[in-house]
Amino acid sequence: MRYFSLNQKNNSDKPTVSFQTAVKQSLAPDKGLYYPLSVPRLPDSVLREMESMTKTEIALHLMAPYVEEDIPQEELQKIVSETVDFDFPLVRVSENIYSLELFHGPTMAFKDVGARFMARCLGYFNRKKPEEKTRVLVATSGDTGGAVANGFLNVEGVEVIILYPKGKVSDIQQRQLTTLGHNITALEVDGVFDDCQDMVKKAFVDSDLNHLNLTSANSINVARWLPQMIYYFYAWQEAKKHDIPLHIAVPSGNFGNICAGMVAWKMGLPAEHFVAATNVNDTVPRFMETGDYAPKPSTQTISNAMDVGNPSNFIRILNLTENKESLEQIFSSYSFSDAATKATMKSVYEAHGYVLDPHGAVGYLGLTRWLKSQNKQGGVFLETAHPVKFKDIVEKELGIIIEIPPQIMQLMHREKKYQQVHSYSDLKEFLLD
After folding, report:
1. What is the C-alpha to C-alpha distance for residues 417 and 26, in angstroms, rounded to an integer?
2. Domains of the chain
């Protein structure tokens, strides 16, 4: 598979690069996001067989077309096997409403899949050129940094620098960023997530930093973004057993997760509709209403991983369909306040005994609103993080005590280590040092 920059979308002679180059560069030289030259549709025979395939077999079929020029089949099988070696259960919440729990990995967030896949790809590429050191630069609004830190910990030839907004991640999220040490460095930014993301993007196109071999582990990177399509097929596999229609609601911030789901749809996933549920950072819901894409500074909420005012991946979603009208046939988007999120966490727990984290609550709200608007029944929402990662707010709203899982408990007594940066010049100075 070859990849092109979305800034070259209308250029018939657009230059293309390999998967390996796209992964190592993250952004194209013209600052555009890389996108596959085509999205292959799986043969109907393979789709039928997927109903009984293992997780690794499904992942191998999905990822092979995108990497086959750069990663041999045998190596790819090992990579995907290690990427998906935890559970992705579909759990009944209420009648015909199911949660796809994506928090059973090592950092208890959906981003474990993309981070683990990318780390293993880079590890394979670095084995071929051990003299080249790669520096992974990543911005996080909460969960990305922890997943990347864990996924890349002690990967040979890779140094990870994580930027996170001061005071805008939970205590547990901060511990996942700042307590691992080794090849992981955390930088606390005096600002919001969009400031962190802007700094990362500037670094990639700064000619003074070309010699550092910078790449990103945010969902702008194709190796972080594309593997997320895998668990949508797991959801389909399980939904068929319960006769649940594949209406899928996704808590959305930078829109990489739901975009990967829509790529899965293009490949043959029989999804009927996608709902992007956001908090008050409503750039995309406003676009769907007005047709005007107008980013604005992000606002802090209790669902902090979605506090994104200018979602990078929405341009990839726009590239999946011909125009806004065709997008509306498969995609809707709604925003919800913190008050509605808290009320939903409480009502779902009281009625069904299911504990939602704030992001999952927003996903649940998005699904139920869309079902009501269409007079339809049943669907799946993505529960993207374990409630323990938002322990204070969940315990306060539900009046319960959340037991801390072992993978989190081991971080609680480690020392937090981070450096503070206030501007891009601070980041640049740190990188050059």
Report:
1. 27
2. 87-109+226-404 (3.40.50.1100)
Query: Residue 250 is which amino acid?
Result: V
Q: List the catalytic residue out of 24, 55, 111, 391.
A: 111
The total number of residues shown for the chain amounts to 433
Give me the phi and psi of 243, to 5 degrees please. 55, 45
> Which residue type is seen at 314?
F
- The region that residue 154 occupies, defined by phi over 0 for left and psi between -120 and 50 for alpha, beta otherwise, is left
Task: State how far the Cα of 279 lies from the Cα of 425, in Å rounded to an integer.
Answer: 31
The alpha carbon torsion through 188, 190, 195, 200 (nearest 10 deg) reads -30
Q: Is 111 a catalytic residue?
A: yes
- Judge contact between 380 and 249, C-beta under 8 A: yes
Neighbours of 207 (CB within 10 A): 6
Give dist(CA 217, CA 362) in Å, integer.
25
137 forms beta bridges with 161, 216
Residue 232 near residue 248 (C-beta atoms within 8 A): yes
CB atoms within 10 A of CB 431: 17
Q: State how beta strands 3-5 and 34-36 pair.
A: antiparallel
Cβ of 131: how many Cβ atoms within 10 Å? 6
| Partners of 122 in the β-ladder | none
Pair 214, 160: CB distance under 8 Å: no
**Ordered per-residue pLDDT tens for the chain, 433 residues:** 999 999 986 656 778 999 999 999 988 988 899 999 999 999 999 999 999 999 999 999 999 999 999 999 999 999 999 999 999 999 999 989 999 999 999 999 999 999 999 999 998 998 877 667 889 999 987 778 888 888 889 888 889 999 999 998 888 889 998 999 899 999 999 998 889 989 998 998 888 998 898 988 888 899 999 999 999 999 999 999 999 999 999 999 999 999 999 999 999 999 999 999 999 999 999 999 999 999 999 999 999 889 999 999 999 999 999 899 999 999 999 999 999 999 999 999 999 999 999 999 999 999 999 999 999 999 999 999 999 989 999 999 999 999 999 888 988 889 999 999 999 999 999 999 8
Give the C-alpha separation, 360 to 394, whole Å: 12
